[in-house]
Amino acid sequence: MRKIALYPGTFDPITNGHYDIIERALKLFDEVIVSVALSADKKPMYTLEERIEMVKAALVGLENVTVVGFDNLTVELAKTYKATVLIRGLRAVSDFEYELQLGYLNNSLDEAIETVYLMPKLQHAFISSSIVRNLLKFNAKTEHLVPKEVQKIIGDKKVCMLR
Protein backbone atom coordinates (compact mmCIF):
# COMPACT_ATOMS: atom_id res chain seq x y z
CA MET A 1 0.00 0.00 0.00
CA ARG A 2 1.39 3.39 -1.04
CA LYS A 3 2.06 5.89 1.74
CA ILE A 4 0.85 9.32 0.64
CA ALA A 5 1.72 12.42 2.66
CA LEU A 6 0.19 15.86 2.37
CA TYR A 7 2.35 18.93 3.05
CA PRO A 8 -0.07 21.85 3.51
CA GLY A 9 0.96 25.47 3.79
CA THR A 10 0.61 28.95 2.43
CA PHE A 11 4.05 28.93 0.76
CA ASP A 12 4.06 32.72 0.40
CA PRO A 13 6.65 32.19 -1.10
CA ILE A 14 8.15 28.70 -0.91
CA THR A 15 11.57 28.83 0.77
CA ASN A 16 14.68 26.66 0.88
CA GLY A 17 13.41 25.38 4.23
CA HIS A 18 10.17 24.19 2.62
CA TYR A 19 12.13 22.59 -0.21
CA ASP A 20 14.35 20.78 2.31
CA ILE A 21 11.30 19.38 4.13
CA ILE A 22 9.79 18.18 0.82
CA GLU A 23 13.02 16.46 -0.25
CA ARG A 24 13.28 14.68 3.08
CA ALA A 25 9.60 13.72 3.12
CA LEU A 26 10.07 12.08 -0.29
CA LYS A 27 12.58 9.72 1.34
CA LEU A 28 9.93 8.64 3.86
CA PHE A 29 6.79 8.46 1.71
CA ASP A 30 5.88 7.10 -1.71
CA GLU A 31 4.25 10.38 -2.72
CA VAL A 32 4.12 13.90 -1.30
CA ILE A 33 1.31 16.25 -2.22
CA VAL A 34 2.29 19.86 -1.60
CA SER A 35 -0.99 21.65 -0.99
CA VAL A 36 -0.97 25.42 -1.28
CA ALA A 37 -3.66 27.05 0.85
CA LEU A 38 -5.67 30.03 -0.33
CA SER A 39 -5.32 31.51 3.20
CA ALA A 40 -7.19 34.72 2.43
CA ASP A 41 -7.25 35.59 6.14
CA LYS A 42 -3.41 35.70 6.13
CA LYS A 43 -3.48 38.27 3.28
CA PRO A 44 -0.69 36.63 1.26
CA MET A 45 1.68 38.75 -0.83
CA TYR A 46 1.18 36.48 -3.85
CA THR A 47 -2.04 35.10 -5.31
CA LEU A 48 -2.85 31.42 -4.99
CA GLU A 49 -2.02 30.94 -8.67
CA GLU A 50 1.35 32.69 -8.29
CA ARG A 51 2.22 30.60 -5.23
CA ILE A 52 1.30 27.38 -7.03
CA GLU A 53 3.46 28.49 -9.97
CA MET A 54 6.40 29.13 -7.63
CA VAL A 55 6.05 25.78 -5.86
CA LYS A 56 5.83 23.90 -9.16
CA ALA A 57 8.88 25.74 -10.50
CA ALA A 58 10.87 24.99 -7.34
CA LEU A 59 10.02 21.29 -7.43
CA VAL A 60 10.83 20.61 -11.09
CA GLY A 61 12.97 17.49 -11.20
CA LEU A 62 11.59 15.93 -8.02
CA GLU A 63 9.67 12.72 -8.61
CA ASN A 64 6.52 11.58 -6.83
CA VAL A 65 5.48 15.07 -5.83
CA THR A 66 2.26 16.81 -6.82
CA VAL A 67 1.25 20.44 -6.25
CA VAL A 68 -2.38 21.41 -5.66
CA GLY A 69 -4.22 24.47 -4.41
CA PHE A 70 -6.97 24.24 -1.81
CA ASP A 71 -9.49 26.21 0.21
CA ASN A 72 -11.02 23.66 2.53
CA LEU A 73 -10.09 21.74 5.65
CA THR A 74 -6.75 20.00 5.38
CA VAL A 75 -8.23 16.68 6.56
CA GLU A 76 -10.84 16.88 3.80
CA LEU A 77 -8.13 17.46 1.22
CA ALA A 78 -6.18 14.52 2.65
CA LYS A 79 -9.24 12.26 2.19
CA THR A 80 -9.57 13.42 -1.42
CA TYR A 81 -6.01 12.29 -2.17
CA LYS A 82 -6.04 9.24 0.17
CA ALA A 83 -3.24 10.79 2.23
CA THR A 84 -2.99 9.49 5.79
CA VAL A 85 -0.06 11.62 6.90
CA LEU A 86 0.30 15.37 7.21
CA ILE A 87 3.81 16.81 7.06
CA ARG A 88 4.57 19.84 9.19
CA GLY A 89 7.85 21.67 9.58
CA LEU A 90 9.31 22.71 12.92
CA ARG A 91 12.01 25.39 12.92
CA ALA A 92 12.11 26.29 16.60
CA VAL A 93 10.48 25.56 19.92
CA SER A 94 8.17 28.51 19.25
CA ASP A 95 6.61 26.55 16.35
CA PHE A 96 6.00 23.48 18.49
CA GLU A 97 2.99 24.58 20.57
CA TYR A 98 0.99 25.78 17.56
CA GLU A 99 1.89 22.74 15.45
CA LEU A 100 1.07 20.34 18.29
CA GLN A 101 -2.39 21.88 18.69
CA LEU A 102 -2.95 21.72 14.94
CA GLY A 103 -1.88 18.07 14.87
CA TYR A 104 -4.28 17.20 17.69
CA LEU A 105 -7.08 19.14 15.98
CA ASN A 106 -6.59 17.35 12.67
CA ASN A 107 -6.51 13.96 14.40
CA SER A 108 -9.71 14.85 16.28
CA LEU A 109 -11.39 15.54 12.92
CA ASP A 110 -10.12 12.31 11.37
CA GLU A 111 -8.50 9.61 13.51
CA ALA A 112 -6.85 8.09 10.42
CA ILE A 113 -4.69 11.23 10.02
CA GLU A 114 -1.24 11.25 11.58
CA THR A 115 1.04 14.26 11.65
CA VAL A 116 4.77 13.88 11.10
CA TYR A 117 6.99 16.79 12.13
CA LEU A 118 10.21 17.36 10.23
CA MET A 119 12.91 19.84 11.08
CA PRO A 120 14.75 21.57 8.24
CA LYS A 121 18.50 21.34 8.13
CA LEU A 122 20.14 23.77 10.52
CA GLN A 123 21.22 26.06 7.66
CA HIS A 124 17.54 26.63 6.82
CA ALA A 125 16.13 26.75 10.37
CA PHE A 126 15.88 30.55 10.49
CA ILE A 127 14.09 30.91 7.14
CA SER A 128 10.38 31.67 7.02
CA SER A 129 8.14 33.02 4.29
CA SER A 130 7.40 36.07 6.45
CA ILE A 131 11.14 36.88 6.66
CA VAL A 132 11.38 36.61 2.87
CA ARG A 133 8.33 38.85 2.40
CA ASN A 134 9.77 41.47 4.76
CA LEU A 135 13.04 41.49 2.84
CA LEU A 136 11.18 41.78 -0.46
CA LYS A 137 9.35 44.88 0.80
CA PHE A 138 12.74 46.56 1.13
CA ASN A 139 14.15 45.13 -2.13
CA ALA A 140 16.72 43.24 -0.04
CA LYS A 141 18.65 40.14 -1.04
CA THR A 142 16.58 36.90 -0.89
CA GLU A 143 18.37 34.55 -3.32
CA HIS A 144 19.98 32.64 -0.44
CA LEU A 145 16.55 31.98 1.11
CA VAL A 146 14.46 30.70 -1.80
CA PRO A 147 15.05 28.20 -4.62
CA LYS A 148 16.66 29.82 -7.67
CA GLU A 149 13.56 29.15 -9.81
CA VAL A 150 11.47 31.06 -7.27
CA GLN A 151 13.96 33.92 -7.13
CA LYS A 152 13.62 34.30 -10.90
CA ILE A 153 9.81 34.45 -10.65
CA ILE A 154 10.02 36.95 -7.79
CA GLY A 155 12.47 39.07 -9.80
CA ASP A 156 10.23 38.98 -12.86
CA LYS A 157 7.21 40.02 -10.77
CA LYS A 158 9.16 42.94 -9.27
CA VAL A 159 9.99 44.15 -12.78
CA CYS A 160 6.30 43.91 -13.70
CA MET A 161 5.31 45.79 -10.53
CA LEU A 162 7.77 48.60 -11.31
CA ARG A 163 6.26 49.26 -14.76
Give a verbal description of the structure:
44% of the residues lie in helices and 18% in strands. It contains six helices and five strands; from the N terminus they run βαβαβαβαβαα. It has helices at residues 16-28, 48-58, 74-80, 93-109, 129-137, 148-162; strands at 4-9, 31-37, 65-70, 85-89, 114-118. A five-stranded parallel β-sheet has the order 3-2-1-4-5, with helices on both faces. Helix 2 packs antiparallel against helix 6 (148-162). The longest helix is centred in the middle third of the chain and has 17 residues, at 93-109. The chain is globular, with a radius of gyration of 16 Å. Residues 159-163 have low confidence and may be disordered.
Write a short abstract of this structure.
This protein has 163 residues and is α/β, with parallel strands linked by helices.
Task: Offer a few descriptive terms.
163 residues, alpha/beta, single chain, five-stranded parallel β-sheet, Rossmann fold, disordered C terminus
Helix and strand pattern:
EHEHEHEHEHH
Strand-residue proportion: 15-25%
Number of extended strands: 5
Q: What fraction, in percent, of the residue positions are helical?
A: 40-55%
Structural class: alpha/beta
Q: What count of domains describes the coordinates?
A: 1
CATH class: Alpha Beta
Low-confidence stretches: 159-163
What's the helix and strand layout?
Blueprint: E1 4-9, H1 16-28, E2 31-37, H2 48-58, E3 65-70, H3 74-80, E4 85-89, H4 93-109, E5 114-118, H5 129-137, H6 148-162
